[in-house]
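Q: My collaborator sent me two sequences in one message, no labels, and asked for predicted structures for both. Can we handle them in order? The first one she listed is below.
A: Yes, handling them in the order given. First sequence, followed by its C-alpha cells:
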Amino acid sequence: MIYLLRHGETDWNLFKRANGITDTYLNQTGIAQAKAQAEALKDIHFDICFCSPLSRARQFCEDIYNGHVEYDDRLTEIDCGEFEGMEETAEMMKAFFQAIRTGDRGTERLDVFIKRNCDLCDMISTEYKGKNVLIVTHAANARAIDYYFNRKPKDYDFKKTVIEKGGLITYGNS
C-alpha cells in the first residue's frame, strides 16, 4: 500500500500564502495534525519512507515515522518563483497557473514538476511493489502523485485539492 501524507499546517498556509520552496515550519496546528496521523498509523509497518527535504515535511515525518527516511528532492514542492509568499487570491492563482505552463516569472514548469514526481512513482512501483510505502510531501506533489496512481487521465484537474493539510490518501501497490 502507498500511504501519501501531506504535511500539516504552516503559518503561510493559515494566512493563504504560497509556500513553494520557501522553507517554512509547521505551526501548532500542523504539529497536532502530525501527532494525530502518528496515532492513526501507529500499527502500520512501513517498509520504506520517502520525504521532501523541506522542513515542514521533515517535521511532519519525524512525528510519524521513526525509521530511516529517504529525503528525495523530487518530493520538494513546486518552485513558485515570484509568487512565493504572495497571498493566494483568485487573481494570483490564475497568474500562477498561467506562469507554470512555461516557467515564466521564475516558476518551475508544470510538466517538469509532474515528470519528477512521476519518475519517483515509477521507481516506487517497480522497486517497492507489494510493500508499505510512506510518502510525506506537499500539496502540488500530492496532485502529481494522485495523477500518477489514477493512471494519468487526460482531463486531470491539477488545481483541485487532493489532500487537506495533514491529511492522508492511500493507493494500492500490488
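Q: And the one she listed second?
A: Here it is, processed independently of the first:
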Amino acid sequence: MRHPLAFLCLCALQAYPACAQLVSDQPVIEVKPTPEDVNISTTFDFHNKGTQPVRVVSIESACSCLSATLDKMLYQPGEKGTGKATFKLSGLTGMQEKVLHVHTDDATRPEWVIRFAIDVPELIHIEPKTQQWQQGDAASAKTTRVFLLGPTPMKITSITTASDQVEFSWREIAPGREYEISLKPTSTGDILFGALKIETDSKIPKYARQLAFFAVCRKPGKQ
C-alpha cells in the first residue's frame, strides 16, 4: 500500500523540479568613475540560490567597452561567487546602462543578465553635438554652445577644422564656463560632414580635446 505522505512528497517533487539559479546580490551594480578615469574596474557578488550546480558556459557583452570575468565556472547550490567587470570610458559621458549576458547550463534559466549603471562625469557639454543643415536650404549661421562643467573653470584655447567648406567664429560667454560657436557651410548644395576640433587647457587628456560635428544632409525622401 502506497503511503499517503510519500505520495504527496513525490507529487511535490514532480511539480517543483530541482533548479539552479545564479543571482546578483544587487539588482543593479552602480559604478562611479572620477573625471580622470580612462578605465575603471568593479567587483560584484552573486550566489547560486538553487538546488543544483550551475556551470557557466560563456560571458558576453554587447558593448566593446565592457569585459568581465568570474572567479570560477562551476557553482554548487548555495555557493557564493565574485565577478570583475572592466569598463573603457573613452567616449562615454553621463549616466550609462550596460549589461552582461552570462550563459549557463541551467535549463530553467540559461541566461543570467547582470546590469550596471555607470555615472561618467561630464566636464564638457556641447549642444548640439552635431549641427545640421538640409541639402538645398539656406546656408544660414547656427550656434553651438560649449559648457565647461567641472569644479575648476577651463578655457578653450583654439578651435580648428580640416574642412574649407564651413565658416565659423567663437567667443567666450561666461569666463571659464561657457563658449558660443557660430558656424555655417559655404554652400548646402552638396552632402557634407566634418568636425571642429576644440582644444582646452584641461589637465585631463580626454577633456583637452573635444569634437563638435557639422553636416549637410540629404532631405528626407530625396533620392
